[in-house]
Amino acid sequence: MAPTTLLLLCCCLLAFPLPGSLAVEDFVGGYGINYGRIANNLPSPDKVVELLRKSKIRNVKIYDSDHSVLDAFKGSGLNLVIAIPNGLVKDMAANESKSMDWLNQNVKPYLPETRIIGITVGNEVLGGQDQSLYQPLVDAVKNVYNGLKRLHLEKQIEIFTPHSEAVFATSYPPSACVFKEELMPYMKPLLDLFATTHSSFYVNAYPFLAYTYDPEHIDINYALFKPNNGIVDPNNSLHYDNMFDAQIDAAYAALHAAGYDDMEVRVAETGWASSGDQSEAGASSENARTYNFNLRKRLFLRKGTPLKPNRPVKAYIFALFNENGKPGAGSEKHYGLFLPDGRISYDIGVSGLLPSSASSSMLSKKVSRASVAAEG
């Protein structure tokens, strides 16, 4: 093929994405972060963008569609996922016009300067206590997707809904995991749509929560990616040396049992609390540093899981900041990698806006250099 012809072909491929592919890269590398804002002491969104760029974190997920955040991300080059909160799910499900109104207010005016690459509809709805949201979630996802199609954005913006471990009937051993039967009337139409749109299955995976529920029987080293004997799945002889990989492969097993072998599993949330209630075993700054440091190192290796070794894991870390307004257990307020003034909470190899007294290890410097190579 002549060089000129080859060049024209490459240009055409860039201008016209292949069917089923997103027009923009929807997740750079393997590492992203959740930017929660239930707090009264956080820096302004423009400062947050500065912090993210200095830390070389390019994938960001928020829990609403706040316009001050959307404005701050304009021209940043950062990938942003925005959200329709649970409180709006019934409105979005009512009819497509509601969804169109939302898209016209919160998405269309910001493209392409703000790189909105995903929309989450609800969070941990299925398996949650409010069963009145189950069917509206399905209808809302369909309506928002149809709205994206009307705007010709369905290939640029992924639509999904993150699930908690509560959607699974069992998750141990990983290969035995299946969805709860009573949730399948709602889960199946969602999975059918996501399979058609080439979207991923998003799960919130928290070894920290699993450990706090059963610290007597779970090896904390297994939860923290530290050296341990691990487990062997008796059904397929796969060995797991950390709980994070096991939780992901459990989701893959559930998808396989439901007939969705080709769907990718991504992690919408994972993290470890640096403090919590007295009853929350393992909530400490040292454990949080260990988990997030080892997790970051693992994600930058761009490797898969024992079940899916050729499919690199992608995960959004929870969270960017501690959120002093979060309700619930004490740990809910203490997941942040950064302090409100932009300093790091503990050293995992990222840079804050201000110098920190946290000591830097040689290993963290290696991870930092690896991050530049992986994300740059």
Automatic annotation (TrEMBL):
It is an enzyme of class 3 (hydrolase). Its EC number is 3.2.1.39. Residues 357-376 are annotated as: Disordered. Keywords: Glycosidase, Hydrolase, Signal. GO terms for biological process: carbohydrate metabolic process. Gene3D superfamilies: Glycosidases (3.20.20.80). The keyword Membrane does not apply. Residues 1-23 form the signal peptide. Transmembrane segments: none annotated. The keyword Hydrolase applies. It catalyses: Hydrolysis of (1->3)-beta-D-glucosidic linkages in (1->3)-beta-D-glucans. One of its GO terms (molecular function) is glucan endo-1,3-beta-D-glucosidase activity. Belongs to the glycosyl hydrolase 17 family. This is glucan endo-1,3-beta-D-glucosidase. It comes from Setaria viridis.
